[in-house]
Amino acid sequence: MATEAHGAEEGSSLVFHPMDQFIVKPLFGGTEVHWYTITNVTLWMALTIVAVLALMVLGTSGKKQVPSRGQSMAEMAYGFVYKMVEDVSGKDGLRYFPYIFTLFMFIVFANVLGLLPMSFTTTSHFAVTVVLALAVFLGVTILGFVLHGTHFLGLFWVSSAPGPLRPVLAVIEIISYFVRPVSHSIRLAGNVMAGHAVIKVFAGFAAIAAVSPVSILAIVGMYGLEVLVAFIQAYVFTILTCVYLKDALHPAH
Amino acid sequence: MEGDIAELGKYIGVGLTAIGMGGAAMGVGNVAGNFLSGALRNPSAAASQTATLFIGMAFAEALGIFSFLVALLLMFAV
Amino acid sequence: MATETHDAVEGAAHAAESAGMPQLDFSTWGNQIFWLIVTLVVIYLILSKIALPRVGAVLADRAGTIANNIAAADELKQKAKDAEAAYDKALADARAEASSIVEATRAENAEKLKAATAEADAKIAAKTAEGEAAIAEIRAGAAVAAETVAREAAAEIVSAMGFKASDEEIAAGVSSRLKG
């Protein structure tokens, strides 16, 4: 009943609704989404695992001195994230390299798989990115307190600033610290969602004969941009994780 | 009729919020442009600062994404 | 007309409710978070247990191989340098030998030349001496003949003038004149 009304509404304006692609629906019938239901989220996350497995395990199974193409890509990804962690967080940040690499691989593959036509983009959902960002935020905060105790609060007390300004700066620092997970999560989901929604909007225009060449060209352009965004957002998420990790490891402001 | 006015206000609000993304565009362009002018003065130091470039772009862009989010919330959630 | 717009608005509102922003449909959050955590744990285990140690080992291995190869290349380079030095040395030796041979030959030739010159000189000197002796002999012969002629002429002259003189006196007088 609801879907019927929905379909009728669509027929009058756009061919499809630009946000329909983000609907979470069960794969094997039913409409209820329980926490254990196997949904399209499950499917695309499983495909992400498969992609990571294919690149990082099957690709490197040769363990060759002179790498094959797959192994070369896996090594490139490894070296890229390893260097990032080392440069930004310092040598002692390398202990957390596996977790950061996990984040990077998950986000980059979820973004890229989400670019396939008819796919579902798991990273476009706030539920996913908020959990990712909160995990980083809580992990980094707890790590900071475990490593430095109350010295970690020195992060908010800018000792290089003139005395009267320090409380004001401390308030600003605390606010910016707690805004971190918000911007961290919304940046990723917002970028991915915005790109996909814009592509869908152009795809809706493509049904109108007069503007369809323009809109198809626009889809091509946006798609190229989205490929770029998929990588850049994974990179940015990872590098910000490294920056926050550096703050936890070396809180001296 | 009341519903129509509410719809009208909603869509006007969405349009106004979208202006915020222009600000983010200017911010990101500013970051990239300044990076480029600095990089051309001292190309040898540029490679080590690309991480900073992306962090700066990410921060500048985040605010635009916030305004986009507000637009989406107005469109679909309010 | 009014009912139509009303229907449309209601339809739109309904659509927004059902499809509006699936991200804000909190009933699906539990599902997504559950599967996300499962996914992250699986990826973490795959990476930290299998992939990362393997890639790290391959990279370390390769770095070791490259270092070894560079060391081997350095060794070979050193060898090549040594070989070049040996070659240079052999070349220099050969050159020195050749020049010494040239020097010896030249000296020998010079010696021969000197000997030949000396011999020739001696021969020439002998010939000269011989000639000089002949000339002296001829000159002596000439002097004796002149004395004889002079003595005979003097004796003729003396006799023609009517004087008498012994041969000894004439000879003494001629030879004293010839000498004086």
What does the model show?
Chain A is an all-alpha fold and 253 residues long. Chain A has one domain (14-59, 74-249). Chain A has helices at residues 2-12, 40-58, 69-89, 97-114, 126-148, 165-205, 212-249. The longest helix of chain A has 41 residues, at 165-205. Mean pLDDT of chain A is 85; it is low at 1-12. Chain B is an all-alpha fold. Chain B has one domain (2-77): F1FO ATP Synthase. Chain B has three helices and no strands. Chain B has helices at residues 2-41, 43-46, 50-77. Chain B is rod-shaped. With 180 residues, chain C is mostly helical. Chain C has one domain (39-179). Chain C is 91% helix and 0% strand. In chain C, helix 2 (29-160) runs antiparallel to helix 3 (167-179). Chain C is rod-shaped and about 195 Å long. Mean pLDDT of chain C is 84; it is low at 1-19. Classes of the chains: A mainly alpha (253), B mainly alpha (78), C mainly alpha (180). Chains A and C meet through helix 1, helix 2, helix 3, helix 4 and helix 5 of A and helix 1 and helix 2 of C.
Which structural traits does this protein have?
A: 253 residues, mainly alpha, globular, B: 78 residues, rod-shaped
Strand count, sense and barrel status of the largest sheet of chain A are:
none
* Shape annotation of chain C: rod-shaped
- The proportion of residues in beta strands of chain C is under 5%
Termini gap of chain A: 59 Å
The largest inter-chain interface, given as chain pair and residues per side, is:
A-C, 57 and 45 residues
What structural class do you assign from the helix and strand content of chain A? Answer: mainly alpha
